[in-house]
Amino acid sequence: MKRRTFFKSTAAAGAAITAAPAVWSEAKAQARNETLLLITESPPNSMDIQGVGTNRPSYEVSWNTYDRLITYGVKKDANGNDHYDYTKLEPELATEWNVTPTSATFKLRKGAKFHDGTPITAKDVKWSFDRAVSVGGFPTFQMKAGSLEKPEQFVAVDDNTFRVDFVRADKLTMPDIGVPVPVIMNSELCKKHATAADPWAMEWLKNNLAAGGAYKIERWQPGQEVVFMRNDDWQNGPLPKIKRVIRRIIPSAGNRRALLERGDADISFDLPPKDFAELATSPKLTVIGTAIENAMVYLGMNVNEKPFNDVKVRQAVAWALPYQQIMDSVMFGRALPLFGGADNLSKGSYWPQKDGYKTDIAKAKALMAEAGYADGFETTLSFDLGMASTSEPLTILVQESLKQIGIKATINKIPGANWRGELLKKNLPMIANAFGGWLNYPEYFFFWCYHGQNAVFNAMGYKNPAMDALIDKARFTSGAEYDKLVKGFIDIAFEEVPRVPIYQPLLDVAMQKNVTGYRYWFHRQLDYRQLVKS
Amino acid sequence: MLNLLLSRLATAIPSIVGVVVVTFMLTRLLPGDPAAYFAGLAASPQAIAEIRTKLGLDKSLPEQFVAYVGDLVQGNLGNSLSTGQPVVTEIATRLPASAELTLFALIVAVAIAIPLGVLAAVKQGTWVDHLCRIVTTAGVSLPVFFTGLLLAYVFYYLLQWAPAPTGRLDIFLSPPPDITGFYLIDSMLSGNLETFWSALRQLALPAISMAIFSLAPLARMTRGSMLAVLGSDFIRTARASGLSPRTVVFTYAFRNAVLPVITTLGMVFSFLLGANVLVETVFAWPGIGLYAVNALITSDYAPVQGFVLTMAVLYVTLNLTIDFVYGLVDPRVRLES
Q1: Do B82 and A415 count as a contact with CB atoms less than 8 A apart?
Q2: What is the pTM of this model?
Q3: ∠ CA B322-B326-B330 to the nearest 5 degrees?
């Protein structure tokens, strides 16, 4: 009977688009309408963003289940899509705040509660911030990026007032409080599960939430799915429209596309560029591509070893890359070019931007001859197998192009697990790689990728004291002088080309037409709270 | 019989010990640094060193081995870094998924391959024989992930006969109560027909892709072995004595021909456990193969060791079972021991 009425109702609505398994009852069809099905490639490995080795999908879980003190505003990007606004900080748990040169004081929302009903107080905030700067590893490092370094900086003034004392004036301090790391945890609950050996309850929080955010977790099957349920008592923002979110792992990219096209899944990020390019033209789905801020795919060269220690050789390579071919047949247009500008001078204090290189084999050959390599040389070009879907065709095109100026490059594929270790050794002659920074400041990117402190992402081993001075100074200045400093280090980067920028990747997402409200976030994970499914 | 079993069991122990040592060494010899991998994007050398200490990777190899064996004795296979869970629980929840799929595929394969092989042998040279040849050649020539993708494309994407390849159940159903871990059995036991039907529909395509792959050796072996037996003296005698063709084929010929088929069955079963890895990836099947592949990609030692160890134990058990079944089918084996 139920089966019959179900078919009747769908036929009447004329909405038999979704592939309904034959034995669906009406209640389930209802549940389907209130549920968002997100399909993706990799599962979260922890519920604790401050844990050891917590992966990117876990950031998404944390972002949607925990609160932070403040969050970022929203603006429309060039295509009219919602985009977080890093210039605007907005209330989340804190309703207002007062920033002086030496400290910031936050007023906490009255009536805000954790999932278990305990009121959220300033001592929870202090405990959580203390934890973030004490546990070590990535969270502590990220806090340090905003000069949040030691527990003494954090003061619970009274139940509803929390103060951060600054160790120095740093323009990244306030933005850093809005990143995914400093979440507000239920300190009493956590303390119950802490032990002498594990004072921050790392073991327990890995598999459990001590949160007060917009969603609760209904079910977590590690490696398979996470089911989120809306927290109807949530106070720290507008109540989300979507009641239930299922985040399901579908390992095969082909099947993810099939599920979207058949209307069985609602939204997905993880598809190859070719699929996004094709789906973008399909009338059934919405595809939104947002340029990933402060990110680029590039070709890096080891400046400390022959032959790439010679700037002429590096420039020759920059003139020889098959840029447009990469855009067309590797990225299928799903990227922004970072080549072919008028010249090698920066056009403003923003990053990334176009340099002046384009494919010009004659010019490249001349530079090779000037450098004394008219007959070319042999080298290897390495990439991370974890990014093979784009890096493999890219390196093959580069290999063919370099052959024209006499460089014989052997392609070296490095498994994802080894990649970081190989980068750390800093002895790969040439690499194709990507980098993106959370905080959208040029000097933040340069600090990681060009600065002589030689972080892992400065895989080229580039060191230039003149540039370091500009980067260090830019972090603590603003206005016209800041612009001058930024332009200064960008000009050096373009002229010396330890890395050749190729393109700025897009964060692509495909969703059903009835899903709206998607917002781009710097952490590149999905925020369920603004989505609407009609 | 008991003696036979005990002696076989005794030979199994050294192989298990060997596997423990070899997997430990192999995972350490693999290039790759789990500490660097799990330290995350913005890791400094200090952060990586801290993680290395936390994971116990800064100790010497013998020390690590002693710690590993000590844990193993207590039934602790360590924690997976990529899912954050103890390996023992992960394997225990995932093994039934793989076992259900493999056994179901094997039953489908046997149900088709053995009658086909017997028929092909009895009616040698007829269309049945040719059909058998075509089916088996196609079966071995198609890699199992390809069959899987093809089936999903045709039956899910184009025809919509099969459900979405999203794992063991429809996404909006909750799993049946955990009794055996086999969804088909558990849903029947709890009397939930909707779940049973959903589980069966989800199982169909992956099981068929695996069955197609394993048909070939079974059918060919049945046919070959039946032909040899049918041509032997005692069958001629049986026929000459006027026994019905049915009795001759099933009671006399088949029982004698089945021994090499059982050996092949054992081999096919182990093939299928391997083929699982690919099929599980295609159909998002939350089994042990998918788990092992993900662990390998991330240099996650503990699950890889746990997986290889579980597989080794399974193989050894399988071999023991086959030896035992031999004894039941063929009295000569019992006498020789």
Answers
A1: no
A2: 0.83
A3: 170
